[in-house]
Amino acid sequence: MGDYSKALEFYEKDLEITKKALPPNHPSLGTSYNNIGGVYNNMGDYSKALEFYEKAHKIYEKALPPNHPDLATSYNNIGGVYDDMGDYLKALEFYEKSHQIYEKALPPNHPSLAPSYSNIGQVYYHMGDYSKALEFYEKAHKIKEKALPPNHPSLATSYNNIGLAYSSKGDYSKALSFLEKALSIFQKSLPPNHPNIKTVKNSIDNVKKKM
């Protein structure tokens, strides 16, 4: 907790300096507000996080062209807070706005599109729409397969997401196949006591029990 208060103190000082030095709608002020929002988000103070993310967003809307990647990041940040708060329809709305910008600004298989697809998939998963979740998780996975080396942990996360969605749909043999792929990569790429390894092992045990 001490680290967060230190970070807040640092970013708030930075904000005061930036406010004095720059005009009120300068993008750097947006960055300052974003940084403070990020700390509040990590602390679990979602209303404060939203307040600062929205201040940042208002500045970006005035200062940047409508398809600027920073605007997409800003929509994504706001979507993430709503996702954490369990307001999934709001989360989806902002994640989709973010994704639309990325789609216009980036080539179709750009690595930055993968987290965007994953976020949308995650919201559908939380909402219990596992087929939709799968659709977006698979889109993310296709991009990662092209962009990353075969034992990259991010690919394992992707296999894990797909496995959990199949498990929730009741397709346990498919779930097991993807979770085992995830475990295999995590074991090659992470230290043996990493929490991700334990989590996937637990998921595999749960699927085996259901089978």
TrEMBL record:
<comment type="subunit">
    <text>Oligomeric complex composed of two heavy chains and two light chains.</text>
</comment>
<keyword id="KW-0802">TPR repeat</keyword>
<dbReference type="InterPro" id="IPR019734">
    <property type="entry name" value="TPR_rpt"/>
</dbReference>
<keyword id="KW-0206">Cytoskeleton</keyword>
<dbReference type="Pfam" id="PF13424">
    <property type="entry name" value="TPR_12"/>
</dbReference>
<keyword id="KW-0677">Repeat</keyword>
<comment type="similarity">
    <text>Belongs to the kinesin light chain family.</text>
</comment>
<dbReference type="Pfam" id="PF13374">
    <property type="entry name" value="TPR_10"/>
</dbReference>
<keyword id="KW-0505">Motor protein</keyword>
<comment type="function">
    <text>Kinesin is a microtubule-associated force-producing protein that play a role in organelle transport.</text>
</comment>
<dbReference type="InterPro" id="IPR011990">
    <property type="entry name" value="TPR-like_helical_dom_sf"/>
</dbReference>
<feature type="repeat" description="TPR">
    <location>
        <begin position="30"/>
        <end position="63"/>
    </location>
</feature>
<keyword id="KW-0963">Cytoplasm</keyword>
<dbReference type="GO" id="GO:0005874">
    <property type="term" value="C:microtubule"/>
</dbReference>
<keyword id="KW-0493">Microtubule</keyword>
<feature type="repeat" description="TPR">
    <location>
        <begin position="156"/>
        <end position="189"/>
    </location>
</feature>
<feature type="repeat" description="TPR">
    <location>
        <begin position="114"/>
        <end position="147"/>
    </location>
</feature>
<feature type="repeat" description="TPR">
    <location>
        <begin position="72"/>
        <end position="105"/>
    </location>
</feature>
<protein>
    <recommendedName>
        <fullName>Kinesin light chain</fullName>
    </recommendedName>
</protein>
<dbReference type="GO" id="GO:0005871">
    <property type="term" value="C:kinesin complex"/>
</dbReference>
